[in-house]
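S., here's the first fold you wanted:
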Amino acid sequence: MNESGDVEEADARRSKKIFILCIVFVILSLFVSLADPGISTFIFVSISIIPLAYVMGKATEELAAHLGPGPGGLLNATFGNATELIIAVFALSSGMIEIVKASITGSIIGNILLVLGISMLVGGTRYKEQEFESSAATTRSTMLTLAVIALAMPTLFVLFVHEEGVEGITDAMSIGISGILIAAYILGLVFSLKTHKHFYNPRGEEGEPIWSKRKGIIVLTLATIGVAILSELLISSVETSIKVTGISEIFIGVIVIAIVGNAAEHGSAVLMAWKNKMNLSVGIAISSSTQIALFVAPVLVFISHLFATPMTLAFEIFELVAIALAVVVVHMVSADGKSNWYEGVLLIMVYTIIAIGFFFHP
């Protein structure tokens, strides 16, 4: 009892310090944005999101201990991608459609290559081999394959059809496909949380929660709001940052904004891998990409019709190929249900190669 009490007391002190640090960073970010709404804000806000990402990871870990690995991974992806959705809506209202598409691309490939790669590397340095439920991982990668097919149709249509009214047809096609993707996502929730939840909730990773469920929900919600505020500041400084640095818009969206916008999943997945909870780690990484592809992207297609220029699912061929390659690689790595540090390194290398390609993309 005494040992348990000491752990809770130490955790409470550490949490309090981090909460104060988060508040300070948010306030300082607001002041920096007022003084210099450009590159300084872009850099400072990017750094400021890190402690908030840790808080979200901690809250998710506690809630996952109450709910189990499957719902815990879904919960983390949901709250992390809520921030992504807020960023995208703000960008759409400003007419930054290409930035939104680039950030969607970056979020998908970043989670299944960079985040999963770092997780496997970090976990592999502590454990020679880690195991996870291969059936769940395979199902998630199949869902991502569906997303690739959904993005390919309007993209190829725009690429090869040169007729009058192609934009209207692409828009109608995107709306229809978006409805199918959302249906696939909802059915996926039924599959993972009800009919086949044993795939996503294997025993041995539940852990003992220190926080109450109520505290976990409150902390996760407040942290998400903080990340959303900082993300809006980040988006507002993008145009100035592009002009100052000379970096292309697509690289900013695919690499920089995607990494910062999904910082919550990054920290959480790595933390779970370090604690040898690979089911939760893999679930966080792949589920986040799945939700971006099957839920966030199609929802944004519908939301975009509230603004002047609707968004379609016709992505650049460069973006589509990058997503397709990432999905193929993650399917190959996750099929056996085992991971090690070298597989993590390979995933990171694939991500780096793709990032170099986008860096030189005009």
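And the second, which I think is the more interesting of the pair:
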Amino acid sequence: MPRSIRIQFPGAHYHVMARGNRREAIFLDEDDRRFFLHTLSEACVMTGWRVHAWVLMGNHYHLFIETPEANLVSGMAWLQNTLTRRFNVRHRAWGRVFGDRYKAVLVEGSEGHYYQTLMDYIHLNPVRAKLIRPDKGESVLDFPWSSVAGGYALPPTKRAKWLAAEHGLSRVGCEDTTAGRRRFVERLDKRAVAESAKSCGVPLMPEEVDARASHLRRGWYWGTQAFAEKMLKLAEGLLKKTKSRGYAAAPQRKSHGELEAERLLAEGLRAAEMSHAEVKRTKGADVRKAIIAKRLWDKTTVSQGWIAERLHMKSAANVGMVVRRELTKKKLATLPKALREWAAETASA
């Protein structure tokens, strides 16, 4: 079955979900969850994403993402690949961590009802999973791995900059004050008590919406019929476009990740004292190219094909092979001092 098209545009909102391979756990301990949030934070810096809500369950996660630039696909590719690599390294495992392709439901973020229902759906996930028992006096605040305890209940200075908590609070009529944040939690707790655990936070489908096409659990959009028609027109436009056969075919479409990659590339080449002419002449396996390539792959959303083209490293497959083979302690010690310092600085940034 062919993959469905990803509709991307500046200012888009998405409900993103991903499960573990064969529904296995993707979080084996609390450190795995901390690693996830750290990696998500890196992805937000690279892409400019704003996250309106998140929850980390045992074998899946939910994100409510806003993309100021049209870069969901590149950002998610980096996020999922980086999470997989870090999980496998940490647990000495190999292979896939996530199962099928992540799901991304377009959301009408400008419409209050659809925004609010998605927020509640995500934040009440632990109640549906019976990790929180409202009938026993437990609160959604008692689950530490959601953007309630991990963001909305915290003052601005103690929460992640990429979490759009002030915006989310205002959408449900709460101010970003101690009292307003308390009301936000109380509102969710009241819903948890009033609704059955099985369907807590699951929105009822409006009668005028085609239930076959629009739902937070299945389908491809969550919004009004007018929003769906607008998205369909965007999709038709994307399908009519001729697909580019290479990165250079559309140089004018520079995403946030590509701009950041260009900046890092220029910094790395200056630290290595390599001109563009020398980059062309130098072998692809040069250790200076290897360390720059690794930083570009670790810190931006560009593909290995992009890196291979800009550093003249033959092919995308060659980038990974060179990085693994050349970056030994012995060879790293031969790097120019300025390049070693740049590599250390960007690694910790």
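Why I say that: The chain has two domains: 12-237, 254-348. The first strand starts at residue 12 and ends at 19.

Talk tomorrow,
H.
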